[in-house]
Amino acid sequence: MSDLLRYESVYKAYGQNLVLQNINLTVPEHSVTCLIGASGCGKSTLLRCTNLLEDVQHGSIWLKDVDLAASQRDADKIRARIGMVFQSYNLFPHMNVLRNITLAPTSVRGANKSEAEDRARELLQRFGLLDKALEYPDRLSGGQQQRIAIIRALAMRPDVLLLDEVTSALDPEMVGEVMDIIIELKGLGMTMMLATHQMGFARQIADNVVFLHNGAVLEQGHPDTFFGNPQHERTRHFLERVTMAL
Amino acid sequence: MRFGFHFVITHTPGAAGYMSTHSSTPLTATQVAELLRPKPFWAQRGVIRSLIIALLSTVVLIGGMATLIGNTQGWASVQQAFFSAPDMREAWPKVVDGFKLNIKMFMIAEPLVLIFGLMLALVRIGTNPVMFPIRALAIAYIDLFRGAPALLVIMMLGFGMPGLRIEWLPNSPVFWGTAACVITSTAYTAETFRAGIESVHPSQRSAARSLGLSNFQTFRYVVLPQGIKAVIPPLISGFVSLQKETALVSTIGPMEATRNAQIYSALNFNYSSYVVAALLFIALTIPLARFTDFLLRRSAKRMQMGGLT
């Protein structure tokens, strides 16, 4: 397995506030990386930097052989190769589901409308949402909206999918349907990075678990060793607290 | 609110008579069915009572005011001066004729206001440093014409521009009056558009950019449509103001509704013609006002459903 993403000593600051420090990380192709850590530890920032929604102050983020950190000029082209899904779904409320999904393929890739729609319907069908194709987002449940948001990102055939706490805003009974899609995507070989607070889910799906603390990678490893035998005191402390909360 | 009434129907579980239906035994299936049976509007609890109270309150208030005004010493002469039916009938054709000009000015001005207003808002929102001088001009324009009274702008253009004696410029007061209305309304409309565009949540931009849409595409397909949709009700309020503003053009001479009313009034020593003009303006604005209410109610409902993120 070759590396799809490679972070080399990445630093990011908001003003005087260092939010990412010396991040070194590799994401192999077809692997799932789970980012965990307390709120504000830098999980979301790392994902947003990867998608060039934020720029980094130092270091490199390699997507195959392109340094993302140095390619702000081609940002649009690179973003089109990296799918991102947000905590609050962020569907476009003034467009129906089909248009939400086909907007980027038609306007960015220049796909023709009927081809893009066929592809969108195919994706909707596969994830059991074909009957919602002509609905507007305000008629859908949170779980349905989030699944559509994932499909919208997939429609661009991204190299990697970044999922930023995609189940955190959902009612508990809808968390499962979104997780199921992610599990299905893993089965299809999709490379994914996800920030999550769901430790059980991370353990089930991750190939590599990364624990961030104050913007730095404190510990990472295969979920069995990471959860079974955490090395750092802080990691143990964090895991104890989140398991207690459950 | 099928009937358009706006009564507040309060549900007071503690009210006498209602309590008696609360007992600790569970209901039978038929009783539950009775509970769920749809009731007509008037049969719902509290509706009849609200209707009666509203009716009584209206009769007391309107009746009281009518008695008060009717009993004043000068009412008879005021009524004769403002609400004389024969004068209204006589003034009607001329005022209506003038009102057609108001409608014409409005119909020409409104599309221009929308186009220029949006353009001005776009210039003002931009951040490109190359555009700085144009942005500064836009801000100055908005500040100036939001502050200047429309009446003054109408007079300055209407009397001032022809006064310059530039040959190729039109000197019709209708032209300059309409232009002045466009100029003042554009300043307000630009700010309305700007508010709408800035109200679109930044997460919508993030989502669009993350899909690879360029800055321009994000604005064109995602931000702008939502921004405009958000300000449709205030834009329609702006239409209403503009309709009324056309009456101010009378000061520079065109024979529109207010001007004709003024002429009638001066010849006949009676103000009823002004009331006719007022009624025409009101009749034109009421449908728009109701339409705005409808749109606001609908968007409130959408918000309640939690559709917009």
Q: How would you characterize this protein structure?
A:
The complex is a heterodimer of chains A (246) and B (309). Chain A is of the alpha/beta class and 246 residues long. Helices cover 39% and strands 26% of the residues of chain A. Chain A has helices spanning 43-50, 75-81, 97-107, 113-126, 142-154, 172-187, 199-205, 223-228, 233-245, and strands at residues 3-14, 17-28, 32-36, 58-63, 66-67, 82-85, 160-164, 191-195, 208-213, 216-221. In chain A, the strands form two sheets. A six-stranded mixed beta sheet of chain A has the order 6-7-8-3-9-10, sandwiched between helices. In chain A, strands 2-1-4-5 form a four-stranded antiparallel beta sheet, with helices on one face. Chain A is globular and about 55 Å long. By secondary structure, chain B is mainly α. Chain B has two domains: 1-9 and 29-71, no CATH class; 84-304, MetI-like (MetI-like fold). In chain B, 72% of the residues lie in helices and 0% in strands. Chain B contains twelve helices and no strands. In chain B, helix 4 (85-125) packs across helix 12. The two termini of chain B are 28 Å apart. At the A-B interface, helix 2, strand 6, helix 3 and helix 5 of A face helix 8 and helix 9 of B.
Name the features.
heterodimer, A: 246 residues, alpha/beta, Rossmann fold, six-stranded mixed β-sheet, four-stranded antiparallel β-sheet, B: 309 residues, mainly alpha, MetI-like fold, 12 helices, disordered N terminus, disordered C terminus
Blueprint (SSEs and pairs):
The complex is a heterodimer of chains A (246) and B (309).
Chain A: E1 3-14, E2 17-28, E3 32-36, H1 43-50, E4 58-63, E5 66-67, H2 75-81, E6 82-85, H3 97-107, H4 113-126, H5 142-154, E7 160-164, H6 172-187, E8 191-195, H7 199-205, E9 208-213, E10 216-221, H8 223-228, H9 233-245
Parallel strand pairs in A: 3-8, 3-9, 6-7, 7-8
Antiparallel strand pairs in A: 1-2, 1-4, 4-5, 9-10
Chain B: H1 29-36, H2 47-70, H3 75-82, H4 85-125, H5 132-147, H6 150-163, H7 173-199, H8 202-210, H9 215-230, H10 232-245, H11 257-268, H12 272-304
